[in-house]
Amino acid sequence: MIGLPAGTQVWIAAGVTDMRRGFDGLASIVQSRLEENPFSGHVFVFRGRQGDRIKVLWWSGDGLCLLAKRLEHGHFVWPQATSGAVHLTTAQLSMLLEGIDWRRPIRTHQPTQV
Hints:
16% of the residues lie in helices and 24% in strands. With 114 residues, the protein is of the alpha+beta class. Strands 4-3-2-1-5 form a five-stranded mixed sheet.
């Protein structure tokens, strides 16, 4: 994962996005549906209809970056809302990109002694 600058916010665009969209199409969604500035330096994440593909749009300071990922098995965990945006931490974004349920991560080790 690319290291994001401190203070970068991560936004998930709720609902389904047409994965044929590129830089300009996704930036227009950020402006119109999410009412955010795509050139703010924040990260915007979009998911396709089948749930196995996502695109990430990020302004790096000198240009837009468009990252895409397709899971070979499973799907990306997405909010139930059909519109709007959900704020994530960078740790939750990392889990999302790995296909992990970022809403309820399960710890692998529970302390047994104090």
